[in-house]
Amino acid sequence: MNTPPPDATFVPVDALQSWLGDLFTAVPVPADHATLIAELMVDTDLRGVTSHGVVQVERYVRGWQEGRMNREPRIEVLREGPATAALNGDGGLGYIVAAQGMEMAIERAETLGVGVVTTTYHDHIGSAGKYVRMALRRGHIGVGLSGRSAAPEYNPAGTIMGSIQGSPPFCVGVPSGPDQPPFILDMATNVPWDADAFTRMPQIYLKAIGIAHVANMFSGTLGGQMLPDFDRRNITFAGADQSGFFMALQIDRFTDPTAFLAEMNHLMQQVGDLEPLPGFDFADLPGGPEWRREAEYRERGIPIGADTLATLTGLGHELGVNAPW
Q1: Among 69, 138, 255, 308, which residue has the fewest nearby CB atoms (within 10 Å)?
Q2: What is the rounded distance in angstroms from the CA atom of residue 113 to the CA atom of residue 121?
Q3: Rounded distance between C-alpha atoms, residue 51 and residue 53, angstroms
Q4: How many CB atoms lie within 10 A of CB 242?
């Protein structure tokens, strides 16, 4: 689980986002891409998902510098239908094509009630939750998955960790009423291997394996990553070996939205009234803890650990972008 670093410096949200945009522009990547990546990355850290926030900055910068990612991807529509689309990320960082994919899914949902978009041939999308929150902000149910295709095999021995393709992200978000946080199940799909735990509760590992492979099938395989143009053995940009699946559902095509939100509000409240599990301060469904963190961090600033802060400072010196801390 993500926890705030104990040696954190709290950096103001606007200052951090502006600095990240300047840093990525200095790499250089296109200014509009730099701004979007910075916004999405800060959105992740605001939720307390430290594993997929600014801790990833050096990875991305080196990926561009070393040619593992395309600095200037041109997104291509591979297939398109009234409610669907399939996108080629052109070897770039996944943030760009994933954000476009979810926006296209939302537009289709607002016209037809549902929109589904796959993406392929791109690098990391970060956490899936930030794309699902795009749908939530427009009042829709959102789904975001990411993964790889099954061929060639990445790590056959890794099945006990969840999937032969690692730990695909899996996120489902459902709007709630005004008094409660939206439900957001935003998770990795692997379970760290423990032989004793498997003996006691094998179902935990079996469910994780199933969920992980669903993410890979809906993103990597449905996205066409096994096709010759996107096969990891053939691609120009070696880091661009990931795919995505993004869906938006408009609630009023299924039921009365006022009643739906009232029911969600009631559900979230009922759970909140329960006695917390051992070691927890609150009883929550997924999304509650992150909702509180976001409110705190918007006021206090985003906590960044000492090692990550030193890395960011060093990158700023290297690229000539002075840090605001």
Answers
A1: 255
A2: 28
A3: 6
A4: 27
Tokens of 306: 């000492």
**Bridge partners (DSSP) listed for residue 198:** none
Q: Are 251 and 257 in contact (CB under 8 A)?
A: yes
- Separation CA 32–CA 81 (nearest Å): 27
Write the pLDDT tens digit of every residue in 254-311.
Answer: 999 999 999 999 999 999 899 999 998 889 999 999 999 999 999 999 999 999 999 9
- The bridge status of strand 76-80 relative to strand 183-188 is unpaired
Annotate 9-58 with DSSP letters as a single string: EEE-HHHHHHHHHHHHHTTT--HHHHHHHHHHHHHHHHTT-GGGTGGGHH
Give the residue from 63, 25, 56 showing the smallest Cα distance to 40: 56
Which pLDDT band, with edges at 50, 70 and 90, does 1 fall under?
Answer: low
pTM score: 0.94
ω before 152 within 30° of 0 (cis)? Answer: yes
Whether omega for the bond prior to residue 28 falls within 30 degrees of 0, making it cis, is yes
Strand 9-11, strand 141-147: pairing = unpaired
Q: What is the pLDDT of residues 140-170, one digit of tens each?
A: 999 999 998 876 555 544 445 555 667 899 9
C-alpha–C-alpha distance, residues 217 and 210, integer Å? 11
Please tell me the distance from the alpha carbon of residue 145 to that of residue 212, in angstroms, as a whole number: 10
Across the chain, the runs of DSSP E, i.e. the strands, are 9-11, 76-80, 84-88, 114-122, 141-147, 169-174, 183-188, 242-249, 302-304
Supply φ then ψ for residue 206, to 5 degrees. Answer: -65, -40
